[in-house]
Amino acid sequence: MSTFIALLHSIVLTPDRRVIMQDLRALAKELGYREPRTLVSTGNLVFEADEMRPHEVETQLEEGFEEKFGKHVDIIVRSDCTWMALCSTNPFKDGNGDQVIVRVMRLPVDPKKVEALKPLMTEGQRIAVVGGDLWIDFAGKPSQSKLLSALTTKRLGVGTMRNWNTVRGLTEMII
After folding, report:
1. pTM
2. Which Pfam families does the entry mention (predicted)?
3. Phi/psi at 174 (nearest 5 deg)?
């Protein structure tokens, strides 16, 4: 048996309807996953499952999500071991937990695409690629940065962002 962390790219179904975490946990149970639990209301799911590759879990979750909720949502899945590795490699641990964000990628981010982000950065901001994921220290509120709006699937590939506080919270759920 393995522990997995699933990160939904979006929980917005329609402008007036979001996925409720209770429904997300119910979906995980329907798919045969055990002990599903969520962290905050933004699509962070931790559960136990038989030995599977994360990509297989992603496919099952995405298909099940679309069938249950009527909308495709990209879901990134990491095993507990790869999540612990991600957590231990934060290059900006000296940054504020709500200002340091990791874009967890399905496939490693292209370094050329990261290089293209640099002109959007302001003084104090830092970016780094570690293990194929993109880490950003916004050095201020991410919502006030031009960089945030450039971190799209179209530009960088399939991925989803979580701040350092959430990454640590998910880590605490699996240790």
Report:
1. 0.95
2. DUF1697
3. -110, -5
The answer on pLDDT for 175 being more than 90 is no
CATH label of the domain that carries residue 71? 3.30.70.1280
Report d(CA 47, CA 174) in Å as an integer.
Answer: 9
- 28, 47, 80: which is the final residue of a domain? 80
Residue 45 structural domain? 2-80
- Rounded to an integer, what distance in angstroms lies between the CA atom of residue 5 and that of residue 12? 20
Say if residues 103 and 133 touch (Cβ distance below 8 Å).
Answer: yes
Cβ neighbourhood burial of 124 (10 Å; 0-12, 13-18, 19+): exposed
Bridging pattern class, strands 17-18 and 12-14: antiparallel
Query: Tokens for 106?
Result: 């399905």
pLDDT digits (tens, 9 = 90+) for 21-51: 999 999 999 999 999 999 998 999 999 999 8
Q: For residue 137, is it left (φ>0), alpha (ψ between -120 and 50) or beta? A: beta
Angle ∠(40,75,117) on CA atoms, nearest 5? 90
CA distance from start to end of the chain: 15
One domain, residues 44 and 120: no
Q: Domain total for the chain? A: 2
